[in-house]
Specification:
The chain is of the alpha+beta class and 249 residues long. It contains five helices and six strands; from the N terminus they run ααββββββααα.
Length: 249
Amino acid sequence: MPTLISVLMTLITATGLNKPIEVSLTLSGTGSPADLGRLGFTTGVIFDGPVADDLAIFITGSGTVNTTLRADAATTQSSTGYPADTFVVNFTSDSVYTITDTVTNTVVATRTYTAGDDVTYQGIRVEFDDIPKQGDSFTIEANADGVGNNENMLRLIALSKEPTIAGQTFSNAYRDLVAGTGSRAHLAELSRDAMEVVRDQAQESREAAVGVNLDEEAADLIRFQQAYQAAAQVIQISQRMFDTLIQAS
């Protein structure tokens, strides 16, 4: 590969390896992508956008090769449409089934099947009431004009997970509202009890300063009455003594 080597040497001479630069090389002639690895370049397969859930890797040619397969998801995307693109599940045997994309008429997956398992593809889960057998075929497509579509319910479920009320979901906001109401009611009861204690203490302080003790006042009235009666008797005796002295003279 004299062309690639000469290009690489020209880049090294021009940059002096002082700073990295982005270079795009295209193979021509009899070269292969593996030749870039010999030159120190990293090669890979990059998909721009979502891909099928199953991929097949084929190595052709003769001889031996050491390869490393690594799959990294650059971004995670979730489908909000229900259902996914129309696909067909064909059971080629009692324990093996294939998934065919009807848009491209391509078999996108071949999987083993165990009785009781579900079939999942692009966010869709297919459950079977009975155990499928060889030759069974199931077509999964959108319920465009039928009844019983649960799309609205799925949207409600998705809405319940969105932070729509002050950064909270409906359930979390309702829980905080109920808990906050209970807490405020309990604090109000505590405040009422505390104010009643303050009121009782204020009443006791007022009565201690200017209040009247009825038992004490009744005892004073009896004592004053007895003193008045005694004074009246002294006056009567004095009057009699005065009258007796006048008569004696």
